[in-house]
């Protein structure tokens, strides 16, 4: 049973996911910069913009964690699981995450950053996965 409220746990998990997302974006940025695209600048600018947004989010998360006296530390990892130590108001809890779950969540974050701004601006074609009619 966890003593950490869900809002605080969500904040601690963001401190796990955002650095992973930053690492993915930085790797992708280097690929865009070195690949022979005909028009590389739009891709590079998009990834740089998202990187800036994620860095800002991570800054706010770290600031809030510090303000609330919380910490997260990676303690052990293998091919299947990664374990983190959550420190919350003097309590220590270990949480293990299935590595594919971490990867899938980071992928969904990336998708959100890439496409969320378009969801409100454009209508999706009929039959798309987000079609509500």
In which range does the helix fraction lie?
55-70%
The number of distinct helices, counting runs of at least 4 residues, comes to: 3
Number of domains: 1
| Helix and strand composition category | alpha+beta
Uncertain parts: 123-133
C-alpha termini separation:
41 Å
Per the principal axes of the C-alpha atoms, what is the gross shape? elongated
Largest sheet: 3 strands, antiparallel
- Rg computed from alpha carbons, rounded to a whole number of angstroms: 18 Å
Order of adjacent strands in the largest pleated sheet: 1-2-3
Mean pLDDT, to the nearest integer, reads: 89
Strand proportion: 15-25%
Number of strands: 3
SSE string: HHEEEH
Protein name: YhjD
Pfam families: YhjD
InterPro entries: YhjD-like
In short:
By secondary structure, this protein is of the alpha+beta class.
């Amino acid at each position: 049973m966890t003593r950490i409220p869900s809002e605080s746990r969500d904040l601690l998990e963001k401190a796990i996911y955002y650095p992973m997302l930053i690492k993915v974006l930085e790797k992708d940025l280097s690929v865009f910069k070195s690949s022979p695209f005909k028009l590389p600048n739009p891709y590079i600018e998009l990834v740089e913009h998202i990187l800036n947004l994620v860095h800002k989010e991570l800054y706010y998360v770290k600031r809030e964690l510090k303000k609330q006296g919380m910490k997260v530390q990676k303690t052990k990892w293998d091919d299947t699981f990664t374990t983190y130590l959550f420190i919350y108001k003097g309590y220590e809890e270990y949480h293990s995450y299935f590595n594919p779950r971490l990867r899938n969540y980071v992928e969904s974050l990336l998708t959100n950053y890439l496409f969320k701004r378009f969801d409100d601006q454009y209508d999706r074609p009929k039959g798309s996965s987000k079609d509500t009619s």
